[in-house]
C-alpha cells in the first residue's frame, strides 16, 4: 500500500516536472525576445535592478515550504540561465562566426590565397636588420616556392632596452626584397597612426599577440582595406580572440587571418604552449582562415617539424616560422630562428609528408 502511494506521488511529481519544463521554456523564449530587443536598443543584457525587483515580488508571494533564501537561489539560477541564453544567441550572430557565414573566408593577398585548398607557409626573419639579410631570406623563400614573407620593422619587445626595429626603413627593405623576388609582405604594426603609412609597403598588416586587445589598433585595422593577420594574445581565450577579430570585421575589413601562437601555461619546456585544439575549434566556430606560428609557440628549433605537421593535420590553413641567415647574431629571438639550410630541409620534409599539397577534408 505504501509503495503504491509512493508511485502515485512520483507520478504527480513527474507531471509537475513537465509543466515546469514547459513554463521554464516559455519563460526562456520570452527572455530571448527581450534579449533581442535589448540588442537592438544597445541596452545591457544583465539588469541587476530588474532581477532584484523580480526577486522581491516573488519572495513576497512565497508561501513555502521552500524558504525565501531557497526561492531566491532558484530564481537567480533561472535569471542566470536566461542571461546566458541571451548572450549565446548574440554570439551566434557575430560576423566572425560560422553561423553568420558557412563558407570559409579566403583571404586574397594579391593572388596568394590563404584559406583555400592549399596551405601556405609564411616565413622570414623575426626582425628586419639589413637589406642584405632580408634579400638572403627572400631568395631562400623563392627557391622553396614560398610566397609570403614576414619580417618585423616595429618590434614590441618585453624590455625597452632590446632592439625596437628599423621602423619605416625596415618596411621599405621588406617591400624592395619582396618585389625583387615576387613575394608578399607581412609585417607588424603597433601604432594605429602608422597603418596608412604601412599600407604603402605591406600586403598584410600583422597585429601581434601583445596588441590583440589594443582596441584602437583593431579599429584602425578594421577601417583599412589591407588584409590583417591577427595573433592570439598571450593569455587570451578563444572567445576573446574571436571578439578581437570581430572588431576588425565590424569595422568593415573582412580579410582577416587568425594566428594561434601559443598560450601561457605553467609548462617551461616550450616558450609557450601550442594550443593545437584551438585550430579545429577556431575552424568550427569561425569561417576565418587559421595559421599556426610554430616558432613563437614552441620557441624551439628541434620540434618545429612535428608541430608543423600537427598544425596542418589539425586543419590549419598554413604555418608561420622564423628564418634568419645567421640566427646566432640575430638582433631578436636568436635562439628560436632557423638558418637557411635548416629551413630548406624543413620545407622538403614537410612537402614529403604531402601536408602542404592540400588541407585535410573536414566534414562538418
Ligand atoms: O527583464 C529583462 O530585462 C531580461 O533581460 C530578462 C531577465 C530574466 O530572465 O528575468 C534576464 C536577464 C536580466 O539580468 C534580467 C532579467
UniProtKB/TrEMBL annotation:
Domain Chorismate mutase: 1-90
Annotated transmembrane regions: none
Keywords: Transferase
InterPro entries xrefs: Aldolase_TIM, Chorismate_mutase_GmP-bac, Class-I_DAHP_synthase, CM_dom_sf, CM_II_prokaryot, DAHP1/KDSA, DAHP_syn_2
Protein name per Swiss-Prot or TrEMBL: Bifunctional 3-deoxy-7-phosphoheptulonate synthase/chorismate mutase
Amino acid at each position: 500500500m505504501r509503495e503504491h502511494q509512493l508511485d502515485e506521488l512520483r507520478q504527480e511529481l513527474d507531471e509537475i516536472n513537465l509543466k515546469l519544463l514547459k513554463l521554464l521554456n516559455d519563460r526562456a523564449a520570452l527572455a530571448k525576445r527581450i534579449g533581442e530587443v535589448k540588442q537592438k536598443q544597445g541596452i545591457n543584457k544583465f539588469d541587476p535592478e530588474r532581477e532584484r525587483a523580480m526577486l522581491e515580488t516573488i519572495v513576497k508571494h512565497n508561501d513555502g515550504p521552500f524558504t525565501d533564501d531557497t526561492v531566491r537561489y532558484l530564481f537567480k539560477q533561472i535569471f542566470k540561465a536566461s542571461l546566458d541564453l541571451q548572450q549565446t544567441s548574440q554570439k551566434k550572430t557575430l560576423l566572425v562566426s560560422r553561423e553568420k557565414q558557412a563558407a570559409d573566408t579566403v583571404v586574397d593577398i594579391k593572388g596568394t590565397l590563404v584559406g583555400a585548398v592549399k596551405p601556405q607557409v609564411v616565413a622570414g626573419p623575426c626582425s628586419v636588420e639589413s637589406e642584405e639579410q632580408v634579400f638572403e631570406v627572400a631568395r631562400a623563400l623563392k627557391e622553396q616556392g614560398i610566397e609570403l614573407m614576414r619580417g618585423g620593422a616595429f618590434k614590441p619587445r618585453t624590455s625597452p632596452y632590446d632592439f625596437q626595429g628599423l621602423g619605416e626603413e625596415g618596411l621599405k627593405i621588406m617591400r624592395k626584397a619582396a618585389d625583387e623576388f615576387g613575394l608578399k609582405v607581412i609585417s607588424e604594426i603597433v601604432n594605429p597612426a602608422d597603418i596608412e603609412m604601412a599600407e604603402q609597403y605591406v600586403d598584410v598588416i600583422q597585429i601581434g599577440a601583445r596588441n590583440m586587445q589594443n582596441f584602437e589598433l583593431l579599429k584602425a585595422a578594421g577601417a583599412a582595406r589591407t588584409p590583417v593577420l591577427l595573433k592570439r594574445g598571450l593569455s587570451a581565450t578563444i572567445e576573446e580572440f574571436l571578439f578581437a577579430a570581430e572588431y576588425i570585421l565590424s569595422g568593415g575589413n573582412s580579410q582577416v587571418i587568425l594566428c594561434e601562437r601559443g598560450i601561457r601555461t605553467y609548462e617551461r619546456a616550450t616558450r609557450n604552449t601550442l594550443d593545437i585544439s584551438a585550430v579545429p575549434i577556431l575552424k568550427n566556430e569561425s569561417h576565418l582562415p587559421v595559421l599556426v606560428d610554430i616558432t613563437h609557440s614552441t620557441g624551439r628549433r628541434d620540434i618545429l617539424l612535428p608541430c608543423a605537421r600537427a598544425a596542418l593535420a589539425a586543419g590549419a590553413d598554413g604555418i608561420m616560422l622564423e628564418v634568419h641567415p645567421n640566427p646566432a647574431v640575430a638582433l631578436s629571438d636568436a635562439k628560436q630562428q632557423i638558418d637557411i639550410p635548416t629551413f630548406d630541409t624543413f620545407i622538403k620534409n614537410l612537402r614529403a609528408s604531402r601536408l602542404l599539397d592540400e588541407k585535410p577534408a573536414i566534414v562538418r
